[in-house]
Design goal:
Chain A: InterPro entries: Bact_Solute-Bind_Prot2 (IPR050555), Peripla_BP_I (IPR028082), RhaS (IPR013459), SBP_2_dom (IPR025997). Chain A: This is Rhamnose ABC transporter substrate-binding protein. Chain A: Its main location: other. The complex is a heterodimer of chains A (345) and B (353). Chain A is 47% helix and 19% strand. Chain A is α/β, with parallel strands linked by helices. Chain A has two domains: 150 residues, 3-Layer(aba) Sandwich (Rossmann fold), CATH 3.40.50; 133 residues, 3-Layer(aba) Sandwich (Rossmann fold), CATH 3.40.50.2300. In chain A, the strands form four sheets. A six-stranded parallel beta sheet of chain A has the order 2-1-3-4-5-13, with helices on both faces. In chain A, strands 7-6-8-9 form a four-stranded parallel beta sheet, sandwiched between helices. In chain A, helix 8 packs across helix 9. The longest helix of chain A has 35 residues. The termini of chain A are far apart. By secondary structure, chain B is mainly α. Chain B has a single domain, classed as ABC transporter involved in vitamin B12 uptake, BtuC, CATH 1.10.3470. In chain B, helix 4 packs across helix 10, helix 4 runs antiparallel to helix 14 and helix 13 packs parallel to helix 15. The chains are: A alpha/beta (345), B mainly alpha (353). Chains A and B meet through helix 1, helix 4 and helix 5 of A and helix 1, helix 2, helix 3, helix 4 and helix 12 of B.
Chain lengths: 345, 353
């Protein structure tokens, strides 16, 4: 008897699931019909794909994107992989393409690996905007650039000059000696110093290899070799945090100024204890906001992404598409005692 | 009523089930059934799941896992494991990229990448079969070793200048079916592995080793040779998967496919292969891989977040392993009850005849 009951239960379960699936089938034909109709495809539907989820930097940028998309009356969604790997991002691009999203806003984990998926999405009518990390130019409609090298260099030099009274010895703590972007910034800083700050002397450039301990040790060495040092610029988030950690416990605290590129969460305690007055980075929330407005402008045909196209990005104001289909967010943001608590990334 | 009951009792004793019931209750059948249910549900209830594009995406996404799951099944059936497969994917990808970067033609570079897989497999196989080290320890070591070499070869750079005539192949589909052309390679390989595992003396040897290495040795199975061959197979197929992966993303990186070994092993176990060896079938494994692919595709289309998808697939795995134990437990109790009932029922069944 037990066997019979079990068998009939099993048969019943299989039959029931088949029946459910069949009835579901019928429903879906009508359901998908209405889904395919024009009204759905016209609505603004923007999908943000960060490098990975749970990353405070992208949480901040996606917050900006969400606010912007919702202000425009569209639907915002944020999807993505847990690890910053290109293959996992591809699946989310595919899903967005299948759903005929109006636009994908992506920070690419690899300039090439996501290319064919993005091309397929574009061929289905989805607009592609990259931000933070670009892909090769042919795969996207627009790249939202967080900051220009000139802007980054100028902000740091001007900031330090103000903190040390525009004269004295300074040094640079960089990442690796062959880091392309770091070296480009350093060259621009040298030009800026020569042209606008003749009394400031750059006495040394050291490399911490983006390693916390090495950067820490190099900071200590800098202060010993240059007893008259008035300030340090560290254009790398690892370097500036390590230098701040060293300075905060040394007798040079408050006497040697430190600035550079850092994130508010890393630097908060050093700003609060007076080791650091002001440091710089772009504002990821504004970056997300601009990317979302650009995506919307592309999706509703306001712009096509060619050089010279203009669009407005809410409170951020008006933007013009530059060379290589790139839109520049603007000058970096300075983080100091007054505003640091407004940021969490 | 009583007559029916007794007839059922006599015709289907719990300890000798008829073929159709054994098939229906087998793990393979339940995985295939679950796959069909997910597919039918998705087809009818989830927008865009019914597109042929979905089939393409699922198959292309799962190709590397499908490929590596074939030899991995054989390795796990012998009671061993190969954790280095994803690192072999990365290493073959790095070698392929490096050669192409230095102007070597694609066919030669691809053959070299395959050769790398053979060598990796030989190293694993030699250490396991001939030195006699546990495969878990050996392949944890080579997982780090091969990945280290791969990342060392290319550093943090990626090689992206592959000929489009090759990269385009990975996106090609057969006519309007939505089935990727590369699936032909997979089907041929799968047929080969099914023949090897289920229809050859070599395959019976694999099950024997999984049940008891000593008994297999005594009954004439060449255990060392079998294990060596299996590790060379996983190495080679992982390298093939590495070539596919590289061409599909048009990007050779040392860190390609990191963590893929766990996806493969999870799919193999979901497909009904026992981690202790001796049990499991390839059709179940293939269904297991496709089930994971279809389920995550359906959930993504429904807008479910990646964390929840991982929780659901993780739960499915735990439940699938648990259900095997639970089923064995239930049938054990049933058998014991039947035995207890038998004395009172025997006269009735005799009488009814």
């Amino acid at each position: 008897m037990r066997t019979l009951t079990r068998r009939s239960t099993l048969l019943g379960a299989v039959g029931l699931s088949v029946a459910l699936a069949m009835t579901g089938c019928g429903k879906a034909e009508t359901g998908s019909d209405s889904g395919d109709s024009g009204s759905d495809s016209k609505a603004l539907n923007v999908v943000f794909i960060p490098k990975n989820l749970g990353n405070p930097y992208f949480d901040a940028s996606d917050k900006g994107g969400k606010t912007a998309v919702e202000a425009l009356g569209g639907t915002f969604s944020e999807v993505g992989p847990q690890e910053a790997s290109p293959d996992a991002q591809v699946q989310y691009i595919n899903t967005a393409a299948q759903q005929h999203a109006s636009a994908i806003v992506i920070s690419a984990n690899d300039p090439k690996a996501v290319g064919s998926a993005l091309t397929q999405a574009k061929s289905g009518g989805t607009k592609v905007v990259t931000f933070d990390s670009d892909t090769e130019a042919q795969y996207r409609d627009l790249f939202i650039n967080q900051a220009s090298p000139e802007g980054i260099a100028k902000a740091q030099v001007d900031g330090l000059a103000e903190q040390i009274g525009d004269s004295g010895e300074i040094a640079i703590l960089s990442a690796a000696a062959n880091a392309t972007n770091q070296n480009a910034w350093i060259e621009l800083m040298k030009t800026e110093l020569k042209e606008n700050h003749p009394d400031i002397k750059l006495v040394d450039t050291v490399y911490g290899n983006d390693d916390d301990q090495t950067s820490f040790d190099k900071t200590a060495a800098l202060l010993q070799t240059h007893p008259d040092l008035k300030g340090i610029i560290s254009p790398t988030t690892v370097g500036i945090a390590a230098a701040a950690r060293y300075l905060s416990t040394s007798k040079s605290k408050g006497k040697v100024a430190l600035t550079g590129l850092g994130t508010p969460n890393q630097m908060r305690k050093y700003v609060e204890d007076g080791t650091v007055t002001e440091f710089y980075l772009w504002n990821p929330t504004d970056l997300g906001t601009l990317a979302a407005y650009a995506a919307a402008a592309l999706a509703n045909g306001e712009i096509t992404g060619k050089e010279g196209d203009q669009f407005t990005a809410g409170d951020l104001g008006s933007y013009t598409v530059g060379a290589d289909q790139t839109v520049l967010l603007g000058d970096p943001t300075g983080f100091n005692k007054d505003n640091i608590d407004d940021f969490d990334f | 009523m009583t007559a029916v009951d007794t007839r059922a009792e006599r015709t289907y004793p719990a300890y000798s089930r008829p073929l159709w019931r054994r098939l229906l209750l087998s793990r393979e059948a339940s995985v295939i059934a679950l796959l069909l249910i997910v597919w039918m549900y998705g087809y009818s209830n989830i927008p865009y799941f019914g597109d042929t594009l979905t089939l393409t995406y699922i198959l292309v996404d799962m190709t590397t896992v499908l490929l590596i799951a074939l030899p991995m099944t054989l390795v796990i059936v012998t009671g061993d494991i190969d954790l280095s497969v994803a690192s072999v994917v990365g290493l073959s990808s790095a070698v392929l990229g490096l050669l192409v970067q230095h102007g070597v033609g694609m066919p030669v570079a691809a053959l070299a990448a395959l050769a790398v897989g053979v060598v990796c497999g030989l190293v694993n196989g030699f250490l396991v079969a001939h030195v006699g080290l546990p495969s878990l320890a050996v392949t944890i070591g080579t997982l780090a070793l091969y990945r280290g070499i791969a990342v060392g070869l290319l550093g943090t750079t990626a090689v992206t200048d592959f000929p489009t005539s090759w990269t385009d192949q990975t996106a090609r589909v057969i006519g309007s079916t939505g089935i990727p052309t590369f699936m032909i390679v997979f089907v041929l390989l799968a047929a080969g592995f099914v023949a090897l595992l289920h229809f050859s003396p070599f395959g019976r040897g694999i099950y024997d080793i999984g049940l008891s290495t000593e008994a297999a040795e005594f009954s004439g199975v060449n255990v060392q040779r079998t294990k060596l061959i299996l590790f060379v197979l996983t190495g080679t197929v992982s390298a093939l998967a590495g070539i596919f992966y590289t061409l599909r993303f048009g990007s050779a990186r040392g860190d390609n496919a990191e963590g893929l070994e766990l996806q493969v092993i999870a799919a193999v176990l979901l497909g009904g292969v026992s981690i202790f060896g001796g049990r499991g079938k390839l059709p179940g494994v293939i269904a297991g891989v496709l089930l994971i692919g279809a389920l995550s595709s359906a959930l993504r289309l429904e807008g479910v977040t990646v964390n929840v998808i991982n929780i659901i697939i993780g739960l499915l795995l735990v439940l699938s392993v648990l259900s095997t134990t639970l089923l064995a437990w239930v049938s054990d109790i049933a058998a014991r009850r039947n035995r207890a009932k038998r004395p009172t029922q025997t006269p009735a069944s005799v009488g009814s005849q």
